[in-house]
Amino acid sequence: MHKTIWVTAIVRLTLLAHLLTQLFLYKAWTLNRVFPTLTVFPFARNLPKEFPFILYCATLATTLLLLWKPHWKKGVGLWILLVLGSWAWDYVFWQPYTYCFLAIAVIHFFSKSEEQFWTCCLLLLSALYTFSGLHKINGAFLYTIWDSYVLKNRFGITSNDSFFLIFHYAGLLVGLIEILFGIGLLFQQTRLGAFRGLVLMHVLILLGLSPIGFFSNGVVVPWNILLLGISGIGCVASKKRFFDALWPLEFKKHGLVILCFWILPVFGYFGYYNRYFSFDVYSGKGKSLSIIFDNYNDCPKPLLSFLHPRKIENKTYWVVSPSRWCKRELHLVLPNDDYILHSFVAAYEKEFSNSKGYWYITSYPFTAETSFRIKMGNPLQVGCIENLQKKR
Length: 392
Description:
Elements: H1 2-24, H2 51-68, H3 73-89, H4 96-110, H5 114-135, H6 139-152, H7 164-170, H8 172-184, H9 188-209, H10 221-240, H11 251-269, E1 287-293, E2 307-312, E3 315-320, H12 322-330, H13 338-351, E4 358-363, E5 371-375, E6 385-387
Antiparallel strand pairs: 1-3, 1-4, 2-3, 4-5, 5-6
């Protein structure tokens, strides 16, 4: 009885988190959005313009039905297909929280027992925190996330302050703690302590996402509430021994879970697999893409509200950041995998064919050697790139 209650609670929490997330992202499904649709498959371009809104309504209706009847397997299967349909429609929906919701739903759909469901969820959660932590052990995380959002914005600590390097490198503890919790979930002796640590961590994250905090990505609040809820359930389940993970794992039962959550993400660490499917969250890694204009009037009128001045190599340009544009209009973070950025470039140039700007691509450590300007109309390849390194 207890096992069924806890499994049902996790499934319902997942569906509720997805429902709240989709309600928050309603603008991304509307027909009047300015941000271009980044179609994944060519056939999607021929679908009716009303298709995304119909898909959105169908997903919300199915989610509501499953909240009432979470063990309706055909309904779960339909929900999975609808989420995959949104992925086939637009790259902007390839988000880490959606991947987590989908993974839990797929585990629920294929699990034949509560123990199997729990074991697969443990593998998912362990991989999520372990790889998320590994991706944060780098200079890009320290510079773009830790220094900017935490030290400078929240505590007013800058590189001019004494002992700055101590605070700077303390940011590596964030990744190390996540790895510690992720590995701790795999073993019975350390699982309760890991879940307790995760409860505290997600409480702190939610405080950081609140008005008194320093983050502004409100769309991830339902995801963190879900992970907080699962961690709380994990504390009870570990203490009361409601579940015992099925160790050693049987490849026939858990092979696909191991492949998706542990083997393929390893390739993502080296840039050969999707960042978000590799649990690369807030690592600061990847390329940064901007649209730069020499003059204010060169910017298309629909984008003027997203335009701001920026100094690049001692010259002031008018800049539109696709990432900020996507976040402000759709409340989504634009994934910065190379092929998704290429898709955005193609969609933008099709939508604004008379645009007079340039593409500006840079990556950590954001120096002249890693910064390039590309004239619009040219593909993002070396032959069309102008390195902005100063001539000596």
